[in-house]
Amino acid sequence: MRFLGFRYLRRQHILTLIIVITLSSMLFSVTALSLLGFYRGFTTYLGEGEDIVAVYDRKSRTPFTGLVPSYLAEKISALNGVLASSPEAIAPSIVKGESTFLRGIIPEEFAKLNQVTMVEGDLLELDDLNSAIVGRNIAERLRINLNDKLLVLGILTDRYLELEVKGIFVSHSPMDDEILAPLYVGQWLRGADYGHVTLIRSKIDRDTITPSRIFEEIVKEASEQSPSLGSTPSQEPQPPSITPRIVIRFRAENIGVEEAYNFMKNYVDRYGLTRESLLILSAMVFLFSGTSIATALKTLMVQHKGEISVLRAIGASKRLLKKDILAKLMPWSIVAASIGFTLALAILTVIQGGGYMQVLSHTVPLLIGPFVIAINFAIVSLIVSAVILRSDLE
Amino acid sequence: MAFATGYIMLLRKRGAVSSIIAIALLVAIIASTNAIVNYLNLQSETLAGLVNPRGTYLILSSNFTAITDSRLPADLTAKLSNLGYVKNVLPQKVLTANLTTNYGSRTVQIIGIEDVGFFLKTKGAYINGTTAKNWTEANAGEILARALSISPGDDITLTVDGTHVKVRVVGVFRSQTQSDAKLLVPMEIADKLAGNNATVSIIEFYLKEGVDSRDALDKIMQRLPENVRLVQTQQLREFARQMNAQTLAFLNVWSVAVYAVVAAASYVIATRLVTESRYELAMLKALGAKKRLTFTLILAYAITIALLASILGIALGTAGTQTASTLLRWVLPSVDVTPFLEAYQALQIFLLTLTSSIIGCIYPALKSAPIRYVEQPL
User: Fold this and answer.
1) Using a CB-CB distance cutoff of 8 angstroms, which residues of chain B are in contact with residue A360?
2) Which comes out higher in pLDDT, residue A26 or B67?
3) How do residues A25-65 score in pLDDT, each as one tens digit?
């Protein structure tokens, strides 16, 4: 006996179920997309390709507070297979009363790692005294215009400075939420001397050189330093530079070299935050709200008790009825899950646009991964199937 | 009497427990998230509190956003210097000038200082040469000197709006501050270039150690004219507060989605109650109960469920995260997370759950009111 032809489930009651599934699915999607977006944004903060390597301070508890000798950038760039080496001084600061990050860079080296397109104004140069370029996101958030003068207040050190906005750029990376200034400006605000930077990012040719090879060179450099060497200007002949070149004595065990992605990933991994754990956490949220879906399904059964009794009376078995209800409700459930996901995307886009989706003053990117969509449909299907197939239909 | 009978009758329905669990689990999601975020925020605030800012303050003109445009009465310096809790008052006149050397010219910023030597000392600067002491001498910051190939002993010309001053660079200094990209000159040179000696651009000062900064700043503000603003340079706590606010802003928006599900769950629970209790509700009508009683009963049921669910959910969420963090600490000893929920947050969650539940149940409760016994399959 086939009941697919009978429309015994009333649309109004199915609508309630659809709304509950839509909201639960939306809640899951909002949670999963934002958590994974945060994870993605954080781990790709310094670059996501395998060819981007970070030289960092092992002792530092955050990626923003370490210090490594800046002259190592030159040493690394001289290695065969290293395409670019960018020393960077990252300084948390306050601009126009808002928290932000300023990054001191050598523009020429930085450009080899991050493609920067100027929306307004000109590119930054190392000898641009008292100038900076700002990312489009932060320019919009703080209403910064070309040629504005910004009073930048240091956070890690008791320093302040004024910078003129030379340009506004877009890089489609977390840098769009930062201010880029010459390296020495970052060093001032970070409270570092000219011999130190927060980290060194390098672009390498993986076929020629590996991070471990770079580390070997750093170990060699540390062991070759004279024990009496403290912090001295270099005696080696160097091309004229605007920043003083200072050779710092350091311990090789305090320096780490890793792919930039792994370097950032290790920080969040320390707190048990992996992509998988965040997905499980989101799925838990869905399962918790799934009890509402179960309640809605049971309510639907109660509301159709009369119709189900009639069908049972004319010979329909429980198994057949369950299959039939499942066949009738499953498409609606999938549609509701899709609407929930779409709604979540729309809401997050609006929140992101409004500047409410930020972590550490960086916009959390939206990551539409197939995993989230698959888990969304899987959990909905699972809950709907389980509740219908386990119901007694009495 | 009729209300009490009806209320107990509805609560004894078998769906009550599952309804409480459905809403409690949603409340637990909010409570646990808040508990974890509280811990993270407390950590960042504690870290911010560990650093004791040196206490540098700036006084700027409130009419202008740029230091170079700022104009303050020069006599403010004397007023500040007389205060017992203030030390190292450093008035500065910042000008944009055209600097000409033997190799060319460039627009730079110069700072006029009363005592260049004292200024460099407060910045912990090193100098190659001597400090500028009179109106024919200047000190160049290291970055500026490198950019323009200036060495101690070089003669340079400064030009502002057609006024020229020729000075000799008697020393190149390194202070690791923005001054390294500027030229320091005695105040009389800056006054001559600016064409006035009545104003300064900025006044930098420090508070003495052990002084109650809030009290001292209040007193300073009372002495300042209206058109000036006071800025603290190292706002670590403010930075931490804003970082936390960003997380909380997102958490609040996310919570709206959870409360929407709570409202939907409450709607479903009330609908189910009305469907399953048609007989009882019709009986009450038959015994003379008014429409309002049915509405009140459904509403009271939803409120009771929400009340019990929020208490259970808050307890479950808080205890759940604490248990999970303890387990995590056993697995990963380096992870030390201690989630907690503030009393006001518990109250907030409680009230919002209650509100969402009431909103969700109103439509089914209103729909239940017209149920008449003649329409029911008695």
Assistant:
1) 243, 246
2) A26
3) 999 999 999 988 888 888 888 877 778 999 999 888 788 88
Pairing of strands A160-170, A117-121: antiparallel
Asked if the C-beta of B137 comes within 8 angstroms of chain A's C-beta atoms, the answer is no
Q: How far apart are CA A47 and CA A66, in angstroms?
A: 18
- Rounded to an integer, what distance in angstroms lies between the CA atom of residue B286 and that of residue B279? 10
At B20, the amino acid letter reads I
The count of C-alpha atoms lying within 13 angstroms of the C-alpha of B349, restricted to the half-sphere facing its C-beta, is: 32
Sign, Cα dihedral of B5, B9, B10, B16 = positive
3-state secondary structure of B132: coil
Which residue intervals of B51-172 are DSSP H helices?
76-81, 116-122, 142-148
Q: Is B99 left (phi over 0), alpha (psi -120 to 50) or beta?
A: beta
pLDDT of residue B378: 45
Tens of pLDDT, residues A150-207: 999 999 888 899 999 999 999 988 899 999 999 999 999 999 999 999 999 999 998 8
- Test B108 with A357 for CB contact under 8 angstroms: no
Q: With contacts defined as CB-CB under 8 Å, which chain B residues touch A302?
A: 272, 275-276
Whether residue A360 contacts residue A324, with contact meaning beta carbons closer than 8 Å, is answered with no
Give the chain A residue whose CA is nearest to the CA of B237. Answer: A155
B261 and A292 within 8 Å at the Cβ level: the answer is: yes
**Residue B199 confidence (pLDDT) above 50:** yes
Of the candidates B113, B117, B115, the residue with the CA atom closest to the CA atom of residue B126: B117
> B174 Cβ partners below 8 Å, 6+ apart?
A194, A244, B125, B126, B127, B141, B142, B180
CA angle, residues A26, A284, B23, in degrees to nearest 5: 70
DSSP B252-304: HHHHHHHHHHHHHHHHHHHHHHHHHTHHHHHHHHHTT--HHHHHHHHHHHHHH
pLDDT above 50 for A237: no
**How many of the other CB atoms lie within 10 Å of CB of B336?**
12
pLDDT of residue A206: 87
Q: What angle separates helix B236-276 from helix B343-368, to the nearest 10 degrees?
A: 30
Whether the model clears a pTM of 0.80, i.e. scores above it, the answer is yes
Whole-number Cα distances in Å, A232 to A228, A245, A247, B1, B142: 10, 9, 6, 92, 16
Q: Buried b vs exposed e over B163-198: b needs ≥16 C-beta within 10 Å?
A: eebebebbbbbbbbbbbbbbbbbbbebbbbbbeeee
What is the CB neighbour count within 10 angstroms for residue A285?
27
ipTM for the complex?
0.82
* Helical residues (DSSP H) of A203-317, grouped into ranges: 211-224, 260-269, 275-303, 305-313
pLDDT tens profile B336-367:
778 899 999 999 999 999 999 999 999 988 88
Question: Phi/psi of residue B368, each to 5°?
Answer: -75, -25
* d(C-alpha A376, C-alpha A336), whole Å: 11
pLDDT tier at A281, thresholds 50, 70, 90? confident
